[in-house]
Amino acid sequence: MTCGIIRRVPEPSQPMYESFAAEFEAHARDGAYNAHYDRPALLELLGDVAGLDVLDAGCGPGLYAEELLARGAAVTAFDASPEMVKLARRRVGSRAEVRTWDLERPLAWLPDAAYDVALMALVLHHVEDRPLALAELHRVLRPGGRLVVSTSHPTTDWLLKGGGYFDRVPIEETWQTSWAVRYWRQPLEAWCEEFADAGFLIERLVEPRPAPTMAARHPEVHQALERAPGFIAFRLVKA
To answer: How much is the pTM?
Structure first.
């Protein structure tokens, strides 16, 4: 999670991560917040996925899908960015179905109750129509199925951006030096309301600690995340 100056985000016709997909892949492979923070936390929340049907929603370059496959899951993945999909397909080959699809649209190609688990890793805060996305993920999960979600921590957003903690506003900014992004900032109760409205119960809430591997690779970030969380993660159950 890298913050910078505010700038114009890409036009809606171009998926947000499309223009910097390859740069993001290179960054996320060993980046502090991706490789040593979010991925370890979400993989732990997912638990044993061997033999399960898993949907990776907003799969990016396929780093999570690759690990899920290694752990014995049957994986279906999609992303709004065609470039991200190319990278994911290159990573997982024929071992998983990967296609281009936007979470702002109904998942019309997926049948009801088809998956045991769904994953949304640092995706939901970029989605404008979150009620639709969550309702669709609820629909494609089997009874008792789980959705694992991560997003930026509401208190971190508040402390970085100022204003009121209870603000529900879109943020437009630049990460790294040129990655124009847009995401939603809102309080914890708003996230919980959206989950409940979609028919999910919160089974577990985690404020991740950095993985031990971060200490050597990114010592300053490790020290900061030992003091205060950067992300928050949820394991939700289809009610």
So the answer is: 0.91
